[in-house]
Each structure stands twice: as C-alpha cells, then as structure tokens.
C-alpha cells in the first residue's frame, strides 16, 4: 500500500501542517471540511497541498513525518520542495 507524507498550507493562518496517509485525496478533503473536529487543522478550511513525499512503506512515512515535524522550520519545508535531493536523502535514511 502506497503511503505519503503530505504538507498542507493555510494562507489564512500562514501555517503548515505535516501528516502521513495512504489516501491523500481523502485525507485532504477531511482537512478541508473539518472532519477532525478537535484537531489543529479544524481551525480553518483553506488548506491546500503544498508538497507530497511518496514513501515505500507506512513505517518510512511515519519516520519522515516525525523528522520534518522535529525540524520545526518553515525554511526546511520550503527546501524540501526546492531541493529534491533532500527528499531522496530522507528516503534513504529511513528505509522501509
């Protein structure tokens, strides 16, 4: 089963959110409709997909998601999109 790490962005909040899923279209719709009532993303409905990292396994996706969250850096998130080699290094570091 394909898993992805996704980064969504809210212009209204000027914030990013990082998550992992096996069904990105469904998860994106859930964030946009406030499906997760008490979650961070329920504060607004303007979430758009900023970036996606396709992973080889759920375990790899979880580890990459955690790594990105631990960085706590907007610059790092922008650099993931700008420099594909960063993503390849992450995928290599967190093999399946």
From TrEMBL:
Stored InterPro entries: GIY-YIG_endonuc, GIY-YIG_endonuc_sf, UPF0213_domain
GIY-YIG domain sequence ranges: 1-78
CDD domains documented for this protein: GIY-YIG_SLX1_like
Domain of life: Bacteria
Pfam family, one: GIY-YIG
Family of the protein in this entry: Belongs to the UPF0213 family.
Protein name: GIY-YIG nuclease family protein
Organism of this sequence: Leptobacterium flavescens
Classification of source organism: Bacteria, Pseudomonadati, Bacteroidota, Flavobacteriia, Flavobacteriales
């Amino acid at each position: 089963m394909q898993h992805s790490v996704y980064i969504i962005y809210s212009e209204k909040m000027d914030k990013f959110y990082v998550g992992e899923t096996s069904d990105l279209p469904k998860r994106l719709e859930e964030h946009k409709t406030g499906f997760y009532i008490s979650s961070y993303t329920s504060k607004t409905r303007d979430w758009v997909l900023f970036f996606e990292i396709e992973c080889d396994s759920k375990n790899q996706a979880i580890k990459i998601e955690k790594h990105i969250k631990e960085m706590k850096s907007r610059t790092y998130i922008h650099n993931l999109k700008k420099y594909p080699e960063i993503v390849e290094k992450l995928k290599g570091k967190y093999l399946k």
